[in-house]
Each structure stands twice: as C-alpha cells, then as structure tokens.
Amino acid sequence: MTLSQADFAFVSNLVRREASIVLAPGKEYLVEARLIPVARAVGAPNVNEFLADLQRRPNPQHQRKIIDALTTNETSWFRDREPYTALTDVVLPELVKSRAAARKLRFWSAASSSGQEAYSMAITLQEALPAGWAYEILGTDISTAMIERAEKGEFSQVEVNRGLPATQLVQYFERSGAHWRVIQQLRRNVSFKHMSLTAPFPPMQPFDVIFLRNVLIYFDVATKRQVLQNAAKLLRPDGWLFLGAAETTIGIDDNYERVAAGRTSAYRIRNAVPVGAGRRG
C-alpha cells in the first residue's frame, strides 16, 4: 500500500504549516512508514484510512501525533564527537576566563529530541568545568513525545550503546529495571520544554552556547534565516553557536562569522563586544 498524491499533499501541507518542515515528493514511503504505528495506535486499519478520516473530521490530537511521528528524532550520545571536543578544548577555557565573576554558564540544546544531546552536554560540563562552577542546560523540541521521554531521562540498553562510553554509563547512570536512568546530579541541571523553532521564541535568558544541530536542513532558506536571527537574539555577545556538519549560516545570515573550534567550526556574532572586554577587531 502506498500513499495517494492527495494524502501525501495533505500530510506535507500539515507538517509544513505546523513545523515548517519541507517534505519533498519522493518521501511517500518515509511518511507511510512513520505513520503506520500512529494509525494502529488510534485504531485505524491502515494509514490511508487514518488520513481519510482525519481529512473528513479534523482532530488536533491526531494531527499532533503526525507531527511527532514525522519530526526526525535521529540522535545519539556525543553525536559527531567533535563539537564536544571543541567545548572541552576551546570553548570552555575561554568562557571560564570571561565568566570568572559569575561562575555560571547557560547552554541550549535547541532540537534535543529524546535528550541525548542535552545530557551529553551535562556530562561534558560536569567533567570539564572547574570546581565551584554552575551550569544550566535547556533542551527544547517540537515533539511533545520526545520532551516527555527526555524529562524521564531513561534510556534502553540499545540507546545507551549508541555513542556512550562504558565508563560514563557507569558514572552518570543508574539501573531502572531494563533501562538506564540519568543520575540526579546531572538531571538537576537540565530542563526540557516543548518549543517550535519556527514560531516566535518565548522569553528566555541569554545563552553562552547554543547547539542548533541537524535541524536547519529541514527548513527552506527563509525559515533558516528567521531561526538564525531569533537564535542570535538569545546568544550572548561572545557566545558560540554550533550547527550540524551539513549546515551553515553563510549566504543565509551575515550577522554570524564562522570560526575554527578545534577540528570543527562554530559561529559567533560578527563584530560583537565580548563580555567584560572591548570590541573585537
């Protein structure tokens, strides 16, 4: 069974309207595969019947389930590794100097999925920050289901096997039945909330580091530009923005400049005034 053009157009329009995600033709198989469990969960015999009924009788809860299912939630611990090495070797040493008075840092995992990125940040900060420093990490995601999972902080054996070293598993997790739960020492520094990057951002305190990784690739250029502009308003003047390896601000938002960060690159506000210093030349 395959989706009709009309059903695919309905789903594509819904996802673009609610999440600004572009589903190009050719993604019919992906859409159907993602929606099979949704259709079963609501008691529909198949995806076609599920979508037909939804078009006849709009149901916000079922529409939300479609958005959750089609929001890409591919993630792993310390994904791509180099951004975390850059934090340890480049970013944190600089921030420790410039934030010496406050001794506190704020991080944002802007597409946190089920929480691995935010908790990977917490492990990195726990190990790299000097004694006496505090940190806060906010994880946000458009999927309400993913936010609920991230808040629980529980992961299966298969999930912890994806990129999490055994030494850190033992140190920062505890057994919870067949799963592993993040220890309270980390969880107390990490919070999660539902948020769409393509809607107006809610009021938030500025961040020292923003991870906006592997999400811009799903947006058109205008949406990318708006998201980057909104992120810049929440990035401290000398803060750091990390994007995915296939993403860039170049040609989209000239307010950023790309800088080397170890063996990877990051983005900073162009000609910004660093905290506690004069204007950069």
UniProtKB/TrEMBL annotation:
<feature type="domain" description="CheR-type methyltransferase">
    <location>
        <begin position="1"/>
        <end position="272"/>
    </location>
</feature>
<keyword id="KW-0808">Transferase</keyword>
<dbReference type="InterPro" id="IPR000780">
    <property type="entry name" value="CheR_MeTrfase"/>
</dbReference>
<dbReference type="InterPro" id="IPR036804">
    <property type="entry name" value="CheR_N_sf"/>
</dbReference>
<keyword id="KW-0489">Methyltransferase</keyword>
<dbReference type="InterPro" id="IPR022642">
    <property type="entry name" value="CheR_C"/>
</dbReference>
<dbReference type="InterPro" id="IPR029063">
    <property type="entry name" value="SAM-dependent_MTases_sf"/>
</dbReference>
<keyword id="KW-0949">S-adenosyl-L-methionine</keyword>
<dbReference type="Pfam" id="PF01739">
    <property type="entry name" value="CheR"/>
</dbReference>
<dbReference type="GO" id="GO:0032259">
    <property type="term" value="P:methylation"/>
</dbReference>
<dbReference type="GO" id="GO:0008983">
    <property type="term" value="F:protein-glutamate O-methyltransferase activity"/>
</dbReference>
<protein>
    <recommendedName>
        <fullName>protein-glutamate O-methyltransferase</fullName>
        <ecNumber>2.1.1.80</ecNumber>
    </recommendedName>
</protein>
<dbReference type="Pfam" id="PF03705">
    <property type="entry name" value="CheR_N"/>
</dbReference>
<dbReference type="InterPro" id="IPR050903">
    <property type="entry name" value="Bact_Chemotaxis_MeTrfase"/>
</dbReference>
<dbReference type="InterPro" id="IPR022641">
    <property type="entry name" value="CheR_N"/>
</dbReference>
